[in-house]
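Dear colleagues,

For the upcoming journal club I promised to circulate an example of a predicted protein-ligand complex. I picked one with fructose -6-phosphate because it came up in last month's discussion. The inputs are reproduced below in full, followed by the predicted structure.
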Amino acid sequence: MCGIVGFTGSANAVPKIVKGLKVLEYRGYDSVGLAAQLNGEIKTLKCKGRVDALRDKLEQEHFPATDCAIGHTRWATHGGPSDINAHPHSTDTLALVHNGIIENYRELKAQLLEKGVKFVSETDSEVAAWVITEEYKAQKDPIKAIYSSLKKLSGSYAFEILFKDRPGEIFAVRQGSPLILATGVDGGYIASDMTALLPFTDTFCFLREGALAHVTKDSVQIVKEDGTLEEPVWQKTDMTVEAAEKCGYPHFMLKEIHEQPNAFLKTVSPRIKNGLPDFSGDGVSDDLLRRAKKIYIVACGSAMHAGLCGKYLIEHWAKIPVTVEIASEFRYNDPLIDSDTLMIIVSQSGETADSLAALRYGKEHGAFTMGIINVVGSSIAREADATLYTYAGPEIAVATTKGYCVQVAAFMLIAAKLSALCGTLSENEVRTLCSELCRDVPKAIEETFSLHDEIKEIAKKLYQSENLFYIGRGIDYALGVEGSLKLKEISYIHSEAYAAGELKHGTISLITEGTPVIAVATSARLYDKTVSNIRECSSRGANVLFICYNDAHQPENVADTVLRLPKVGRHAEMLAAMTAMQLIAYEVAVLRGCDIDRPRNLAKSVTVE
Ligand code: F6R
């Protein structure tokens, strides 16, 4: 949700900002801009559109070199996408970029209007720029001015600020939105995401909530409200630039789908010790898990869909009741939390505002909170009582694929662990399960890639559809919900997922001659029942694609097209089926000429409620 990046040092800042913004484009891509320190002035260039549009403008205008600049790529919240609403926002004193939302901007704007301030944009960010400006004029000290402004602003923010009369200095502060500090050979950096800085350095510091950073070409400091310094905690990353590049794939999404076998293994295998799941390295003791009498899984979007698989796996293997809640609803549903409640917050980015708010609510009410998080050092990872990191590496495509895969992987481990602790599976059964997971799941996903040509043919039959249904039972329903979301978000075809047996309670009225239906059956358990539901659809004219486990018996004329999953092993079919659905969504979107990695209206990390 908006990407921001800043550099000050001995090199030209402009190409660095453009490069960083290009990497950050997945966080938002409706408008873009930068502000640079130039001879005691701040020069700003911004426009509607993407980073390439800014790059063209910079060239056309022969934008001069500068040693200090900040940049922003936007996902619009207050004020539509336009040149004027693009960041940076400037006053007579400063330029500012902002990621987040200022909730009380209306009252603040009214007060500033009364004082005669003239606003040019419709954004809440411009209001913040003026609040800080007023404080700076009164206090003449940027650090004091920023800290006292923060007392007036409510909401979430990460700001980077250039003051006209402080050349070569960037001030930045965060509350609820991430900021990462970095040092390189040629200066100091600050960005909303580590990936933006990987081309320049491998040493980072996650700025803590509420902290203020002062970056100059010689130093990167964290300054407390009383003016004293806080020692930054520097960490090296082994993440490479290639991890944030396409490496020959036409789209990040396809690259990331192909990274799933490895990401699965990296997430699961280090946590299997002596053949059994072991979370001691994650700070999750067996005693804590033993206490869990009920579990809430709380997340948004695909992460919540991974949670639906988690519910199925935990209830099936460990027999502990699990409730899956949409994070934005959680706090308002009066959840029944006590000290025997384990709350699992699932988030690829670790920054999703609703998930973070739900986590805080759970903690306040006494739950033990555990994150399943991909981004190291992110807000949820830092605030949860414990975190199981998923090791998918940076996920750049807006539509998650490998991020979802490793979340399901984490749930497989958690379910196995809980069933060992609760004794619902014997130690030997858990051992077998763990070795099967490591051996079979990556192989099953890998072998699904060999169905890609078949899937391309399937996509040709689907891409002109206007509506589509996914059906399945049990875990296949949970998979269908995610398959449907993938298709919707990148191909813009309307689709819905239904529990296969539920369709006849109303929605079947939408099935007419030629309506495409994708039915999923990954195991024998509910196969015959699903086949009956398919028949209900096909007898009303539906065009059915049946994704089924490899040696399923195939009743005649049940489906128009059958996609048999690779024959690998139990528990492996679910992620094979998901891979097939990801590839279907991908190929359909390719045929429709969609912007696969940057679907309209979306952003990768949703840091507003
Ligand atoms: C869909 C997608 C989103 C995210 C959701 C939560 O492809 O990526 O639905 O799953 O916004 O994001 P995280 O996992 O970062 O909390």
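Two points we might discuss: The domain at 252-444 is CATH 3.40.50.10490 (Rossmann fold). The chain has three domains: 3-244, 252-444, 451-591.

See you all on Thursday,
B. R.
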